């Protein structure tokens, strides 16, 4: 439902988003994971025509965002929960959107109820809202037009653990009805709870994509040696892709015995050789992003 | 806030229903609503109302008897309006940035030119509504305190002048707001510019001689009289309007088209 192809945004010398390609399938929640400043928000802004890409394209249901008539009815967007006029009440903010989209006012009440904002809270001005309440209001605003695609930037920010579970249920309802959701986060734990698929980004480049299970399953081998540089070359010669680990040594997508064989063949003494820990997505995420950060420095 | 158990909302439309583009009329309604649905917007409108009424009362009590006509009252009440309505026009545009509402506005309607058009139309509607109200009040004031046989003289030309003054004022506000996209900068520039121009006109002879060609206040002055404008005066008004309303509107629009809409 979302097809992003070679999307690139360059600010002067800085490649904020660099040749990003991925797709989001209907019926799936796709987590867009990356550390702060990795290019998640810029990518999402390009998806909804707020930022012009330097090159590449992003299509939603086969169309560019700016070519979708009344886009709020097709794509629900929450890019920044704080981007609401602080002087308007919660209900008034939704009413304006409903008016623009040509929706029945009853829809506003439905959405307020759905996200758990009480009538008293809806009457208060947004400036007095907590971050969690703003997120709920933002989600209500995104769902208002009964969209088929949801784009959410850090929607779990400011939600408590119960709130995150609530969002998971909400999004799984949304996707089981055929919708597609793309949500960004810099916290793996949030995404692990909510997402089905993952797109991992670091320094503007995609570093991994796949289903959550896939990425969890391919947790590989942690290896440390007397001569990491030589071992890295030897592994690369075998067609493997060792990734330097944030905690020293490197991580390889291979069984420990394979790595051991390579080390033995090159007579490199190992100081550590073990399968990476379970729940390895986090380790992998740290490694992927740390490795990417290092590449940028060297 | 309650962590409500999620219900199953009909959040996803089953099949792709044909959705039509948002008509401009609806965008205008949204912009009009935005002008009055915050406290700051309401206060501004209230201030404009109070200032207009105040001007009428003062004029009714202290004004020269022969000028206490419907035209005199209307012109008097128009002064605070042309002074304050541009601020409304400015805020209509700049609140998208200063109050960060632009993210929602431009995701719901990515055709930015239409959003600008809707804001411009909304500003004009507000300006004309203000003028209509002002004429009603001026009529009431004339009925109460009007003097002389010309008390009720208000020709089409006079009305046209008032409309022009009002429209130039609100449109200049929209143009300045769009050009600077920042409430403070736009308001300061809007009020500082006439002062600066006035100083120039006062002290630089070369400027003074041609002031009507580039100073909006000078070229507008004939509109405050009941005499018809000469061809040259119309040309001067057109030139200054292009310079101080048309040009900033165009540059601001071009800037908005290219600009990235961000949150911070």
TrEMBL record, chain B:
<feature type="transmembrane region" description="Helical">
    <location>
        <begin position="159"/>
        <end position="180"/>
    </location>
</feature>
<protein>
    <recommendedName>
        <fullName>ABC transporter permease</fullName>
    </recommendedName>
</protein>
<feature type="transmembrane region" description="Helical">
    <location>
        <begin position="114"/>
        <end position="139"/>
    </location>
</feature>
<keyword id="KW-0472">Membrane</keyword>
<feature type="transmembrane region" description="Helical">
    <location>
        <begin position="234"/>
        <end position="254"/>
    </location>
</feature>
<feature type="transmembrane region" description="Helical">
    <location>
        <begin position="42"/>
        <end position="63"/>
    </location>
</feature>
<feature type="transmembrane region" description="Helical">
    <location>
        <begin position="187"/>
        <end position="207"/>
    </location>
</feature>
<feature type="transmembrane region" description="Helical">
    <location>
        <begin position="69"/>
        <end position="93"/>
    </location>
</feature>
<keyword id="KW-0812">Transmembrane</keyword>
<keyword id="KW-1133">Transmembrane helix</keyword>
């Amino acid at each position: 439902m979302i097809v992003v192809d070679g999307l690139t945004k360059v600010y002067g010398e800085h490649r904020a988003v660099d040749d990003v390609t991925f797709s989001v399938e209907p019926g799936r929640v796709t987590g867009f994971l990356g550390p702060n400043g990795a290019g998640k928000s810029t990518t999402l802004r390009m998806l909804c025509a707020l930022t012009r890409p330097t090159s590449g394209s992003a299509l939603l249901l086969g169309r560019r965002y700016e070519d979708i008539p009344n886009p709020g009815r097709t794509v629900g967007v929450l890019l920044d929960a704080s981007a609401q006029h602080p002087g308007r009440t919660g209900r008034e903010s939704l009413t304006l959107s409903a008016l623009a989209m040509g929706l029945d006012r009853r829809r506003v009440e439905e959405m307020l109820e759905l996200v758990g904002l009480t009538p008293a809270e809806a009457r208060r001005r947004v400036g007095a809202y907590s971050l969690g309440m703003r997120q709920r209001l933002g989600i209500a605003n995104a769902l208002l037009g009964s969209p088929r695609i949801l784009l959410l930037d850090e929607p779990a920010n400011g939600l408590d653990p119960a709130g995150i579970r609530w969002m998971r249920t909400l999004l799984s309802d949304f996707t089981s009805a055929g919708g597609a959701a793309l949500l960004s986060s810099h916290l793996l734990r949030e995404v692990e709870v909510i997402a089905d698929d993952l797109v991992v980004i670091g320094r503007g480049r995609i570093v991994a994509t796949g289903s959550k299970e896939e990425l969890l399953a391919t947790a590989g081998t942690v290896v440390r040696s007397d001569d990491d540089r030589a071992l890295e070359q030897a592994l690369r010669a075998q067609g493997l892709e060792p990734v330097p680990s944030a905690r020293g040594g490197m991580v390889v997508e291979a069984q420990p015995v394979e790595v051991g064989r390579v080390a033995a063949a090159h007579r490199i003494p190992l100081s550590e050789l073990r399968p990476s820990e379970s729940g390895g997505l986090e380790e992998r995420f740290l490694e992927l992003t740390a490795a990417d950060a290092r590449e940028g420095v060297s | 806030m309650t962590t409500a158990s999620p219900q199953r909302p009909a959040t996803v439309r089953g099949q792709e229903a044909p959705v039509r583009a948002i008509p401009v009329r609806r965008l205008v309604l949204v912009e009009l609503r935005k002008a009055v649905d915050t406290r700051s917007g309401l206060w501004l409108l209230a201030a404009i109302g109070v200032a207009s009424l105040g001007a009428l009362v003062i004029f009714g009590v202290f004004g020269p008897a022969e000028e206490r006509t419907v035209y005199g009252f209307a012109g008097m009440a128009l002064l605070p309006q042309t002074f304050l309505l541009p601020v409304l026009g400015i805020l209509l545009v700049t609140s998208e940035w200063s109050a960060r509402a632009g993210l929602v506005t431009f995701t719901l309607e990515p055709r930015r030119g239409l959003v600008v058009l809707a804001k411009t139309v909304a500003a004009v509607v507000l300006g004309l509504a203000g003028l209509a109200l002002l004429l009603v009040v001026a009529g009431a004031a004339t009925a109460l305190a009007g003097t002389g046989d010309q008390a009720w003289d208000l020709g089409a030309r006079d009305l046209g002048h008032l409309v022009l003054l009002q429209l130039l004022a609100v449109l200049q506000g929209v143009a300045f707001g769009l050009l600077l996209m920042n409430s403070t900068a736009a308001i300061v520039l809007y009020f500082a510019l006439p002062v600066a121009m006035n100083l120039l006109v006062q002290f630089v002879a070369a400027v003074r001689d041609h002031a009507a060609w580039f100073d909006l206040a000078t070229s507008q002055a004939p509109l405050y009289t009941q005499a018809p404008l000469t061809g040259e005066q119309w040309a001067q008004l057109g030139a200054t309007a292009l310079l101080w309303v048309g040009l900033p509107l165009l540059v601001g629009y071009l800037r908005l088209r290219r600009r990235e809409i961000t949150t911070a």
